[in-house]
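Researcher: Hi, I'm a grad student and pretty new to this. My advisor asked me to get structures for two proteins we've been looking at. I'm not sure of the right format, so I'll just paste the first sequence and hope you can take it from there.
Model: That works fine. Here's the first sequence with its C-alpha cells right after it:
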Amino acid sequence: MTASINDVARAAGVSASTVSRALRGRAGVSEEVRERITEVAVRLGYTASRSASSLASGRTYTIGVLVPYVGRWFFGTVLDAAEEVFSAAGYDVLLYNLGSPDIRKRFFTRLPVRKRVDAVLTLLIPEEEESVALRSLGVPLATTVGGARPGFTVVGIDDRAGAESAVRHLVNLGHRRVGMISGASGPLHWTTPVERRTAYLDVLADAGIEHDPALEADGDYTVEGGERAMTELLAAARPPTAVFAQSDEMAMGALRALRRHRLRVPDDVSVVGFDDHELSDVVGLTTVAQPVAEQGAQAARLLLRQLDEPGAEPPAEQVRMPIRLVLRESTAPPRPLGPQ
C-alpha cells in the first residue's frame, strides 16, 4: 500500500503538518528534523499527492534541471540529492543534458521549459543572454555552481579559499616544485578552474615561489585526464615534488600515473585533491572536502521554500557551504635530497 503523510509522521515522531512543512522546504523546521523526515519519506516511498494541489494552485509540480554532464560524479551527486528532496515533496524532475554547444544553443533559443516547470535548478553557468532567458520564465531559479548573479539563488563553496588551503598545505610541508592539474577544458563558462588556478598562483607568489608554466597540465576533470596530465608533468625538465589536482577524480588519475611510473606517494610525489570523493578515503587522498550532496539538497529546499512562500523574503543570493582540508596519507614533506 502507498504510504500516507500520517505514516511518515508516525515513523518520524512528528505531526503531519510538520511533515508537510519539511518536505516542501518551508521554514519552522530544523535541519535535523527535516533530514529525518526526508529519510523516512524516501524509505517509505511517500510522495505528496499532486492532483488536488495542482488544480488549486495551477502548478505543474515539475522542476527543470539543467546539467552540462549527467555522468560526471559531481553533477550526478548534486542531481541525486536534489531529486530526492523534490520527489519527497511531490515534484517530478525534468532533466536537460546540455553538454553539447549545439544542444545548449537550441535549448536557450526555444526554452522548452516555459510553462512546463515551476522552478529551475541549473548546474551549468549561464552567460548573460542565457540568464536573461531563464529570468524571463518568471519562476524561482537556483544553481550550485559559479558566483552570485541577479535573479538566482547560488548554493556553493568558496573555490578560491579551498584551493588556497590545498596549495598552502603543500608549500608548508616544504615543497617548492608544486604542480597543478586543472580542468581548463571543463563545462562552458565554468569559473571553478579559474578560481582554483588563481588561488594556486597566489599561494606560490606569497611563498616567493616562481611560477613555472611547465608544472601545469589540463586533466579535463576526469580520472583518465588526470593520468594524462600527471604523465605530462613527469616529463618536465624538473618534475614536481607535489601536485594539486583541482578534483579528486583527476587526483586519482595522477595516483595511477605515478604508480605506473614506479613512483611512491608521498615519498616521491605528494598529491592533494579537491572534493572528498567517496573513494578518496579508500586511496588515502589528502583533499579539500566540500558537501557536494548537501549543496544539491539545500538548493532544492530553497526553491521549494520560494514556491510555497511566494510572499516571504527571498533567500540570500549566495549561500556558502563549509569546506575543510582533510589530511590523509598522500602528502608529506619532500625528500631532503629530492629535486627542489
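Researcher: Oh nice, that was easy. Here's the second one.
Model: And its structure:
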Amino acid sequence: MPDRNTDPTRETRPTLEAVAARAGVSRATASRVVNGGAGVRQPLVDQVRQAVEELGYIPNHAARTLVTRRNGAVAVIIDEPEFRIFSDPFFSRQIRGISRALNAHDAQLVLLLVEGSGDFDRVTRYLAGGHVDGVLAFSLHTDDQLPAIIRRFRVPTVYGGRPERPSEGREGDAGVPFVDCDNRGGARTAVEHLVALGRERIAHIAGPRDQTSALDRIDGYHDVLPDAGPEMVAEGDFTVEGGARAMAGLLDTCPGLDAVFVANDMMASGALRVLRERGVRVPEDVAVVGFDDMASVAEATEPPLTTIRQDVEGMGRLMVSLLMERLNSDAGAWPDSVVTPTALIRRASA
C-alpha cells in the first residue's frame, strides 16, 4: 500500500505559494489580497482572485487573523431560557436576519445562550479569550450581567432593544448603540385603535417589568388611558401560558372589560384561548390586539389576531450593519442607535 504522504493520487490542498505562482505575483502580494490587506494595485488584485478561484484555494484562518486582526466571527448573546428561544418565533426571525447579514459580510455567527449565573461565567471566559470581533446582545433584563461583562472586555457591541436607563449606583450604556422598534408608539396605536372601536374598559397584559420593551409598552398604554387603574394591568412573561394566566386573572378581577391590549403575540394567543374557554366572544364581547405580528402565531389564532407589526428580521440586519460600521471605522466611532417604526395590522380579533 503506498505511503499516505507519497501517494501521487492523494489530493493536496492548494497553497498560497501556488496562488502566487499562478497569478505571477510574490507570496506577500498574494497574502495581502487574500487576507484583505491594502496597497495592492487593482490589476494584481484581479489576478490573485482569479488564481484563487481556479485553484480552489481556501485561506488559512489563523494567518488571516494575524493580518487583519479579525476573527471573522460575531457572538449573538440571548439572555433567555432555552425553551423560549426555540419556541418563540420572535427569536428565530431575529437570528435569521442577523445570520443573513453576517453571511453577506463573510462572518460566522456564534450563538451563546444564557440561562443562569454559571452561563455568565462561561460567556465571560469566551469573550476574554478574544474569539469574536463583536457582540450582538438582546433580550436584556434589569439585573443583567452582560452589559458589565461587555464593558469590562471592551468588545464592540450592539444591543437589540433599548438598554436599561442608567440609575443611581449603576453605570448606563449610553455610548453603546441599539436597534429597537417604537414600542411606546406602537402601544399607543394599539390602544387608540381599541378606543376608536368604542371600547371603554380596556385592559393591558404587560410583559415582564425587568425589560425595557415591556415598560415602554405600558407607558404607551397609559399615554392613551392615563386614568386606568392598576387592576387593569396584569403582568405576563411573554409566553403563551403567561398570557393565559394574566387573562384569567383579568376576567376574575375586571369582569366588565371589553378589550385587551397584549404586549406580544404569544401572550395574546394564550389570552384568546382563555376567552374561548370562558365562552367570551372575540371581538363581539372582548376585542384583542397583540404586538409583534409573528405571522405563524397571529394568523393561526382563532380568530386571527389584530396586532402591531415590528420588522424583527430587518432589525437583526440593522444590528449587524451598525456593528460592521463600528468595526470598519478607523476612528472607532459609534454609529447612532436606530428606532424603527411600527404599524397596525388589522385582522378579525379587533
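Researcher: Is there anything I should tell my advisor about the second?
Model: You could mention this: Residues 20 and 30 are 5 Å apart (CA to CA).
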